[in-house]
Write a structure and sequence with these properties.
mainly alpha; 5 helices; elongated; single chain
Length: 149
């Protein structure tokens, strides 16, 4: 249902865009300009009466506000619809850091009698994650200048 509302709002936004363009074209900045003069002279005045400038200005303002509200609403709707995708870099950044356990010191002197096998196996020690040190490199020699002809 939300997809239907989103796409119906897209259609409404498209229609509002067309209406804004037509209303702006109907306005006349001077006596011989505007779509009204192109369609037979004074078409907007015939439709809206003598106060056509006020009516067209109010319609332009209203349609522009509707256009921006619909655009922002569609932005929020499509962003909310988008499913989050986990990225490899984000997974590494949010992964818990495992600290290695402190090593157990070996006894200084072996006992006289040692058991043959332990009854409970010892847990495997976690290997610390270490980053390899960068290899030492020698700087390359600069290229010889090109011969002059």
């Amino acid at each position: 249902m939300s997809d239907f509302l989103l796409y119906a709002s897209v259609v409404a936004l498209f229609l509002v865009c067309i209406l804004v363009v037509l209303v702006i074209l109907m306005q006349r900045p001077s006596a011989n300009a505007g779509m009204g003069s192109a369609l037979g002279g004074g078409a907007a005045e015939t439709v809206f009466g003598g106060e056509s400038a006020n009516v067209l200005s109010k319609m332009t303002t209203t349609l522009t506000v509707i256009l921006f509200v619909l655009s922002f609403g569609l932005y929020l709707g499509f962003v909310a619809r988008e499913k989050p995708v986990s990225k490899a870099l984000d997974a590494k950044a949010t992964a818990p850091v495992v600290t290695p356990a402190a090593p157990v010191a070996a006894p200084a002197a072996p006992a006289a009698t040692a058991p043959a096998a332990p009854s409970v196996p010892a847990p495997a020690a976690a290997k610390p994650q270490s980053t390899p040190a960068p290899a030492a490199t020698t700087p390359a020699k600069p290229a010889a200048p090109a011969p002059v002809k």
